[in-house]
Amino acid sequence: MSETVKLDVGGTIFKTSRSTLTKFNGFFKTMLESDIGLKIDESGSIFIDRSPKNFDLILNFMRDGDVVLPNCELKLKELLVEAQFYLLDGLIELCNSKIELVEAPKIKLRFIESDEQFLQILAVQQKPMLIIEFCMVGNDMSIPYNFNLYEFMEKYSHQFDIYFQRLSEDEPSRKWKARIKWKPTENGYYSQFPHNLRINRGGRIIRDATFLERLEKMIGEFDEYLKKQRNR
C-alpha cells in the first residue's frame, strides 16, 4: 500500500498518510497492519462506514496528538463516540476532560437590587461580604481591563459572599469599585477602595493600578485587619 491513503468515510473522501493512521494504537493501526476489515473499493479508497461529520478532528488528533475541541457539550459527546469507535485512548481522555469542564456548575452572579435587599443579606451574613460595584455600557457590563470575573470568583468565593451592585447613574467617576462589609467584628468592618493606588518599580511610579490590583490590595488589607482582630 502506498504512503498516501484515501479514506471514504460515509461517502466523504479524506486523504492522509499511512504514518498518520498508524501513529497511535487503535482502529486504523490494527486495520492497516493486519488487513483485518480492510475494504478497498474500485477507486482505491478504504471504506469506513461512519459519519464524516467529526472525522477532520479525528485526523487532526492522529496527526498531532492533540486537537482543539468544540465547546458545545453535544458536539463533544458526538466526537467522544467517534473516538471510542476508532479506539483512540488519548482523544477519549481529552473529550472526557473537556466534557467534565463544560458540565461543571457555572458560577452565578448575585446582584443587590435595593437597600432593603442589602440589609436582608447583612442580617444573615455568614462570611464577609464583598460587593463589587459595576457600570454598564448599553446592556452589558463594562468589564475592566485584565479582570477575569469568573476566575476572580473561583479564587475568592470560599472567603467572601460576592455580590454585584450597579453603580448609580449619578456616580461621578463611573469606574468599577468595591467594598467589604463584615459585621461580626467590633463595630463592624467597612473597607475603603484604594482608588488612587499606583504601581511602583525601582522607586518610580510606572502606572495606575488596574481594578484587579486595587481589589486585591483591598482584600489584603482586610486579611491583615482580621489577623489583628484574632491576635487581640
From TrEMBL:
Residues 3-71 form the BTB domain. Signal peptide: none annotated. It comes from the Eukaryota. Coiled coil: none annotated. SMART domains: BTB (SM00225). Gene3D superfamilies: Potassium Channel Kv1.1, Chain A. SUPFAM superfamilies: POZ domain (SSF54695). PANTHER family: BTB DOMAIN-CONTAINING PROTEIN-RELATED, BTB/POZ DOMAIN-CONTAINING ADAPTER FOR CUL3-MEDIATED RHOA DEGRADATION PROTEIN FAMILY MEMBER. This is BTB domain-containing protein.
